Amino acid sequence: MVLVWDEFLKIIKEEAGSQIVETWFKSVGLDDWNPALNTVTLRAPNQFVSSWIQDHYATLIKTHLGRLLHVNDVRLFFVTSGCENIRDRTIIPASVILSTPHNNKTMGSGESTSLVSQRVQLPEKKTKEKPGPNIQGHYVFENFIVGPSNSLAHAAGVAICENLGKIYNPLFIYGGTGLGKTHLMHAIGNVVRKKHPMLAIRYETTDRFINEFINCIRFDKFDQFRNKYQKLDLFLLDDVQFLSQKEQTQEAFFHIFNTIYEQQRQIVISSDTFPQEITGLQSRLKSRMEWGLVADIQMPDLETKIAILKKKAELQNVILNDDVAEFIASRVLSNIRELEGALIRVGAFASLTSHPITIELARRVLLNLQEQRREDLLLETVLRVVARHYGISIIDIRSKKRHKDIAYVRQVALFLMKKLTFFSLQAIGESIGGRDHSTVIHAVAKIEQLLAQDRAFEQKLRLIEREILS
Ligand code: ADP
Ligand code: MG
């Protein structure tokens, strides 16, 4: 279970930032997971932390733990260490904690006071921390498996570490979700940081970059913002597709880009598509992003997937035989994050039940990865149901029209075809107006992103799925 929680912390760190992990999640542990009931029990140090996390991060926790454990609808329960002397290991339903956040009547008054004081101190302590370069130490080149699908991006990454700002500037890495872009960016950061400790390095997700920009504008600190970024020797900006429609942030980034570039310092950018395909991005930014090297990352082939699994198993001290690695790798089709999730799930099951990891065990654990797919399901059926739900004609979905609403429904259809059927990416693409496999990968990534952010959309999609499968 420790593995699952560690993996979860990594994801939350990426999504919410290390400050939130340090402040809130580090003190929390995964106490129990009951696969039969889909319940996860988290242990928080006290009621305050427990209810704060409930209030702010319940959806995030459910989404990511659900993905890691491969279950839908995780039910969350909390136990607090502070209650242990009173009701040892009592499971408190989340709703109860929410309705009585700081008012545990069974506690002595001394304890209540300490809870209140912690409430004030916790966030404060961290805000005083000096911002670091945001580089995550565990994403290094040594742990990155190279195969035909990612060799160009990898080689370019290694090369720029040797020639910072001199070749491939900017380095632009693109590819679907969970294929290793963020890993590579941190790996570059780690090498440069070690080689040149005095250089100014910064990794940012585009989301955080936008938020920081907005805050600086609000508090009239734009110069401070610009100076901070313009003086960087290495600026790693992840998931730049999120700059879409953010006109003012694009403007700011444009000037930062120019300064860093003109002074021959290094910029590395990642995105889910190549520059020209990013919608809502100024064309002068698109063209600048192509000035250096544009390198893609694709879904790895079976051999690379097996090598990645074995590497991950080694890092997590999980014993994984070749035949089981091949079995898992051949079952996971979407991306490497899913592959890791499958390994964690199998590893957790084996350790919970004290069984060795065999193909049989893996098959049992990964069953519901498979059972959602149906061999007899036709692409046509998916298309028909999706078209009806959104009130858009099948002809329009198959057409070349790029209108926003049509493109969106097209992506939903592609996503569900990939999720629910056994057809190849190519066959799926072809069935919707002769599109290629990269369009399908792109659509899947887009919809996964939306699913993670939007609960209503997730529910709607589940409804559509149910109808397709009925
Ligand atoms: P992206 O940023 O493209 O969405 P990430 O870099 O977050 O993907 O990768 C998802 C997970 O897959 C990470 O845990 C990463 O370590 C792992 N991963 C991706 N590619 C590789 C690889 N070639 N070798 C080892 N691990 C990889
Ligand atoms: Mg990423």
Structural key phrases:
470 residues, alpha/beta, five-stranded parallel sheet, 22 helices, 57% helix, binds adenosine-5'-diphosphate, binds magnesium ion
Structure, described:
The protein has 470 residues and is of the alpha/beta class. The protein is built from 22 helices and nine strands. The strands form two sheets. A five-stranded parallel beta sheet has the order 6-7-8-5-9, with helices on both faces. It has a four-stranded mixed beta sheet with strand order 1-2-3-4. Helix 2 packs antiparallel against helix 5 and helix 17 packs antiparallel against helix 19 (404-420). The two termini are 35 Å apart. Bound molecules: adenosine-5'-diphosphate and magnesium ion. Residues 143-145, 150, 175, 177-183, 308, 311, 336-337, 340 line the site of adenosine-5'-diphosphate (ADP).
Compute the separation of the termini in Å: 35 Å
The rough form would be described as: globular
Uncertain regions spanning at least 5 consecutive residues: 82-131
Q: How large is the radius of gyration?
A: 24 Å
Query: What is the typical, i.e. mean, pLDDT?
Result: 83
Strand order of the largest sheet: 6-7-8-5-9
SS strand fraction:
5-15%
For the largest beta-sheet, the strand count, sense and barrel status come to: 5 strands, parallel
Class from helix and strand fractions:
alpha/beta
Helical residue percent?
55-70%
Bound molecules: adenosine-5'-diphosphate, magnesium ion
* Total number of helices: 22
Task: Give the beta-strand count.
Answer: 9
